[in-house]
Amino acid sequence: MSLNRKKKKREELQTTFGKVKADSFHFDLIDRYFRAKDNSNTFQTLSDKTCNDLDFEELFMFLDRTHSKVGQQFLYQTLRTIPKSVNNSDETLINHFFYDTDFRTSVQLQLEELKSTDAYYISTLFQEEHQKAPKWFFIIKILFVLSLASVLLIAVSEQIIFFLFGIFIVNMVIHFWNKRNLYKYLSSVPQLLRLTKVAAELYKDERLATQNRGLGKSLKTISGVRKRLLFFRLEAKMDNDLASLVAGFIELFKILFLVEPLFLFGVLKRLDSMRREMDDVFSFVGKIDVLLSIAALRHGATNYCIPTISAQPNKLQAKNLIHPLLPNCVENDINIDHKSVLLTGSNMSGKTTFIRAVGINVICGLTLNTCFAASFVMPRMRVFSAIRISDDLLNDKSYYFEEVLTIKTMLNAGKEEVPNLFLLDEIFKGTNTIERISAGKAVLSSLAGESNIVLVSTHDIELADLLQDEYDLFHFSENVNHNTVDFDYRIKDGKLKTRNAIRILEINDYPENIIKEANAISNELDSN
Which of 41, 332, 397, 516 could form a disulfide with 392 if both were Cys (CB 3.0 to 4.6 A apart)? Predict the structure, then answer.
């Protein structure tokens, strides 16, 4: 990169620091590292169900300020797995990135070297099975020896040329058979070389080296096969210019001596023995990019804090809490202390958004040590949700049955002596009123154990009456004027005491006979 281009790149990085990306997001590639990794040693791995309920992909696109594909995959992994503890030294490096512009920019420039989509495939080298050499691989070695001997003996006898031509034909078949094996690694191996180069440069800085003091050994191990790996970089570059004369001669040479299969399976055997080292280097670069991303996220945030992780399992407090995906979001406070929360209110009043906001902030707080609030206190907890339920027609499961299975998972988790956050929206709305209220009350009483916090919304005022001794009651409301409905999105104490559903029908010009009949039935039901 020329000095002028490098200067412009630095200015661009400094100007865009903290801003939301305008990139395309390929989640089928971004989540590869997470899907293949063993996450059994974490506090919790967030389920696909919970991620879907909390609009995880949209959240990720907002949170992601990484500069490399490696960092992007590591950030996805970080957000999907709640750790058992917080590494306090991470905050030191985040602060360096936040305040030291020159240091930050130099790291950004290094990470930009791994922006290619091909870098998504680096993790396959240490997470997936490598292509195995065929059982007849010994024949390739024999053909190599015969080809080499034939070339050396041409000067002795011209008849050798016919023998060499026959070997060349056989070798050509094997060469092009092996092309499909080689192409599997033309994306990942050259990027591995680039990753190790970037990691080595970053490791020279003492502030970054503290992330993994033993990385030097891993880099040294991988450098032992660096020269062999350069073959893949050469092949990747040539693949765009096979029509050139030089490339043609090189291709003939590789066919004659079966260079590609010999190199490929030799390198794969070496790489198979250094999976841990590749993982170390990948995690080192990924972690640095994630910490830099957190610094950028905070720099661009209008309202954030570092959460306090409390030892009290059933206490959660938030001041000026917002949903990070909503522009100009109304701030709300919540104080949960030994009692869970039941929310009432009409549709669109803000109940579900508030529940999602709490869930998102808990996850961001426990994974990124960052919450979108003035202050946030919570225990280390697992997160479960039943918000966005739908029919599973392929597996012949109704809406209600899907909800039953989801809540059963919560009940099982609630029995364990681990703090849990349960998020539910309109519990059992897929069944009739009497059984919905009856089953809802029984389930919510069971979920609200000593170590659990429940946030649940409902339209059933009866459910609020039944749970008022076990749950703190809050509500969201709206103001219905002559022709408009205005929402303030403020959480308020107590249960909702007004109903405006029929009034909203009237505002929207429903026939007068429908409004009269609805009001009459409503009054009769109230009297009963």
Answer: 397
Of 263, 282, 262, 141, which Cα lies nearest the Cα of 198?
A: 282
**Distances 488 to 330, 348, 351, 370, 477 between C-alpha atoms, Å:** 8, 10, 12, 26, 7
What are the φ and ψ backbone dihedral angles of 310, each rounded to 5 degrees?
-95, 155
Q: For residue 146, give every residue at least 6 positions away whose Cβ sits within 8 Å of its Cβ, in sequence order, or none.
A: 167
Query: For 148-164, how does the pLDDT look when each residue is reduced to its tens digit (9 = 90+)?
Result: 998 888 877 777 888 88
3-state secondary structure of 23: coil
Q: What is the pLDDT of residues 286-315, one digit of tens each?
A: 999 999 999 999 999 999 999 999 999 889
372 vs 393: CA distance, rounded Å: 37
The model's pLDDT over 88-120, given as tens digits with 9 standing for 90+, comes to: 889 999 999 999 999 999 999 999 999 999 999
Which residues have C-beta within 8 Å of that of residue 519, sequence separation ≥ 6? 502
DSSP collapsed to 3 states, 365-412: HHHHCCECCCEEEEECCEEEEECCCCCECCCCECHHHHHHHHHHHHHH
- What tokens appear for 340 in the block? 């869970």
Contact status, residue 378 vs residue 314, Cβ threshold 8 Å: no
Count of residues for the chain?
528
CA angle 25, 27, 28 (to 5 degrees): 130
CA 521, 522, 523, 525 torsion-angle sign? positive
Phi-psi region of 339 (alpha: psi -120 to 50; beta: other; left: phi over 0): beta
What is the sign, positive or negative, of the torsion defined by CA atoms of 428, 430, 431, 437?
positive
Q: Bridge partners of 309?
A: 378
Question: DSSP string of 40-88?
Answer: TTSSEEPPHHHHHHTTHHHHHHHH---SSHHHHHHHHHHHHEE-SS--T
Band (pLDDT 50/70/90 cuts) for residue 242 is very low
Nearest to 56 by CA among 87, 30, 85, 37: 30
- Indicate the pLDDT class of residue 346, thresholds 50, 70 and 90: confident
Long-range contacts of 221-224 (CB under 8 A, 24+ apart): 221/274, 221/277, 222/192, 222/196, 222/274, 222/277, 222/278, 222/281, 223/196, 224/270
Round to the nearest angstrom and report the end-to-end CA distance of the chain.
80
pLDDT of residue 33: 98
* Confidence check: pLDDT of 526 > 80: no
pLDDT in tens, 258-294: 888 998 898 899 999 999 999 999 999 999 999 999 9
Instruction: For residue 351, give the amino acid letter.
Output: K
